[in-house]
Amino acid sequence: MTETPYIQCRGLTKTYQKGKISVTPLEGLDLDVRRGEFLALMGPSGSGKTTLLNLIAGIDQPTAGELHIGGKNIASMSRGQLTDWRARNCGYVFQLYHLVPILSAYENVELPLLLDSSLSRRERRDKVLTALELVGLSDRADHRPTELSGGQEQRVAIARAIVADPGLIVGDEPTGDLDRDSGDQILELLTELSKSHEKTIVMVTHDAHAAEVAERTLHLEKGQLIESGKMAAEPESVPAE
Ligand SMILES: Nc1ncnc2c1ncn2[C@@H]1O[C@H](COP(=O)(O)OP(=O)(O)OP(=O)(O)O)[C@@H](O)[C@H]1O
Ligand SMILES: [Mg+2]
After folding, report:
1. Comparing 236 with 32, which gets the higher pLDDT?
2. Residue 237 belongs to a domain
């Protein structure tokens, strides 16, 4: 029996209307991603990678099409439902980390948990310390972002993305601002999260090396996804006489 994909996009379309200008970066896009898969998304600037990521993360809503994640069609949710869904199901990692500068690493990681009033202070503490340990930064809990390296800041951002235990982690060029070694640490961490913790990971990247680490790479072009290695037209098979 084949497993139902964790993410299923069908006919996904996004049109932005700004005055008289209309842009449709995604048009009738289909995509299946398995639970626990580590998927890389590539494509030229302006091809719609961030647009797709924001739809999958429930930050934005499609103009048309279906988007099922973990069995729920998030395309049909109201704004409020989507906000609740996002808090429980998706962690977002940005290129420039987006940590709050006046908060310590501990407080930054704790932020998403403050939305959940059912958690006690003690439960929050346990979750924050577990997340910081997973990214190898238990000893930096009291450091502010300016007291951390870029790679460490991104690891704090990953701890913040996973602290509420979401099934899905999306990253928009999470290694884009890092040197090779720090970037590799982030990629190792994402691999570990997909392999050992069954997190589904969708990562946008411009870096072929980063994409190689992922299990599968898809290229976004003209609103559609093309599997890596199938960019050139495949020769048509000659029918047997
Ligand atoms: N909020 C918006 N309103 C209007 N147009 C938008 C909006 N967001 C994105 N677009 C347009 O949609 C297209 C896709 O943008 P998107 O940010 O998804 O590209 P991208 O592939 O992430 O590019 P890059 O690699 O440069 O980050 C672009 O033409 C952009 O101008
Ligand atoms: Mg982008």
Report:
1. 32
2. no
CATH number at residue 136: 3.40.50.300
Give the domain range for residue 83: 7-227
pLDDT value, residue 240: 52
Atom of ligand 1 minimally distant from the CA of 206: 25
Q: Is 238 part of a structural domain of the chain?
A: no
Assign 229 a pLDDT band (cuts: 50, 70, 90). Answer: low
- Atom 6 in ligand 1: residue holding the nearest Cα: 16
Protein residue closest via CA to atom 31 of ligand 1: 46
pLDDT for res 233: 44
Q: Return the residue matching tokens 């000659």.
A: 238
For 88-119, letters b (16+ CB in 10 Å) and e give ebbbbbbbebebeeeebbbbbbbebbeeeeeb
In this structure, is residue 1 part of a structural domain? no
| Nearest alpha-carbon partner for 163 in 204, 187, 197 | 197
Ligand 1 binding pocket includes 49 (Cβ within 6 Å): yes
Indicate whether 206 belongs to any domain.
yes
Calculate Rg over the CA atoms of the chain: 19
Cα–Cα distance for residue pair 223/22, rounded to 1 Å? 14
The secondary element (H helix, E strand) that includes residue 14 is strand 7-18
Q: How many structural domains comprise the chain?
A: 1
Which of 131, 141, 49 lies closest to 95, judged by CA? Answer: 49
